[in-house]
Amino acid sequence: MKTKHLLLPAFAALALSACTSTPTESVEQVDVLYPSTATLFDLSPSGEQLVAGMAMTQKVTEIRRSGDKALVCIEDRCAYSVALPNEKFESLLSEGQVLPMSQAIVELDGVELQ
């Protein structure tokens, strides 16, 4: 059983090192604000819905380009890649914005999780 527990972290480390060692033609760095997951939903004593604890986190995000692919890495961890980045991807990037992975899957074409 211990081998199974050791193989998963080893595989994850291999996948991350393969991602960071991918040859790139250019690298762009963008400071991006991402929503925090620390959100609380509750009801007030009068029955009104409340949302509390919402925060934004600023992360250095790298766009690593190689051929017809753009790799989106957040703090040196690759999140997703976009094959043939479309106009929407380029437009957001020119405004200093990068979609979080959950939105990119829905809104961009050719997204693959890393």
Structure description:
By secondary structure, the chain is an alpha+beta fold. The chain has one domain (2-32, 59-113). It has helices spanning 2-20, 87-94, 101-107, and strands at residues 26-35, 40-43, 49-52, 56-66, 69-74, 77-83, 111-113. The chain has a five-stranded antiparallel β-sheet, with helices on both faces. The two termini are 27 Å apart. Residues 1-18 have low confidence and may be disordered.
Helices and strands in order:
Blueprint: H1 2-20, E1 26-35, E2 40-43, E3 49-52, E4 56-66, E5 69-74, E6 77-83, H2 87-94, H3 101-107, E7 111-113
Antiparallel strand pairs: 1-4, 2-3, 4-5, 5-6, 6-7
State Rg: 18 Å
Secondary-structure element series: HEEEEEEHHE
Question: Numbering strands along the chain, what is their spatial order in the largest sheet?
Answer: 1-4-5-6-7
**Which structural class best describes the helix and strand composition?**
alpha+beta
How many beta strands in the DSSP annotation? 7
The proportion of strand residues reads: 35-45%
Tally of separate domains: 1
Protein name: Lipoprotein
Keywords: Signal
